[in-house]
Amino acid sequence: GENVEQHPSTLSVQEGDSAVIKCTYSDSASNYFPWYKQELGKGPQLIIDIRSNVGEKKDQRIAVTLNKTAKHFSLHITETQPEDSAVYFCAARGTSGGSYIPTFGRGTSLIVHP
Amino acid sequence: DAGVIQSPRHEVTEMGQEVTLRCKPISGHDYLFWYRQTMMRGLELLIYFNNNVPIDDSGMPEDRFSAKMPNASFSTLKIQPSEPRDSAVYFCASSFGQETQYFGPGTRLLVL
Lengths: 114, 112
What we know:
The structure holds 2 protein chains of 2 kinds. By secondary structure, chain A is mainly beta. Chain A has no helices and 11 strands. In chain A, strands 2, 4, 5, 9, 10 and 11 form a 6-stranded mixed beta sheet that branches. In chain A, strands 1-3-8-7-6 form a 5-stranded antiparallel beta sheet, with no helix packed on it. Helices cover 0% and strands 55% of the residues of chain B. In chain B, the strands form 2 sheets. In chain B, strands 2, 4, 5, 6, 9, 10 and 11 form a 7-stranded mixed beta sheet that branches. In chain B, strands 1-3-8-7 form a 4-stranded antiparallel beta sheet, with no helix packed on it. Chain B is mainly β. The mean pLDDT of chain B is 95. The radius of gyration of chain B is 13 Å and the shape is globular. At the A-B interface, strand 4, strand 5 and strand 10 of A face strand 5 and strand 10 of B.
């Protein structure tokens, strides 16, 4: 099945700086890569996703990039704000082994200091 | 839609007691997932259903855990007997197809 590694586990930035979270995956046939944000006391919520036929996708201050050759994808947050503080999860949906359910990374705790 | 609904939101119980967690998925969704979240192990997929049928329960820790989905609008996760190491936040999520999952607010379980 799919294996997703995510790093760093903790990221601390100053307000206004950029933040980058990176993930690698093992199944070269994976075709869908969502990112979730989990605020304190809540369940994870989808913030952006990308498919394997696209190399980059942007939505206001967040962007995702995908490098299929290297099997890694990244989340970029620009002009960070205190409300961006949360745990972020990447996921990858493999297509081998009979499972088509996204596998989640371990999460990155992002702290934005005012 | 109200989103995924979970109950109870908090549960404190004593070791050996039976615990039942409940989930109402978003109407029209055909997949339902149960996850467990701990600091040590992160977000673990326990089991998922497609059209009310369990598809993969390989993440269920042991026989003390069981899950059912009697109809498209209700699922339960039961732990019997509960142990302190079961203390965690349990999330239910649903999706239409195999992509975007919508998570509930979670049930915070503490087993004393």
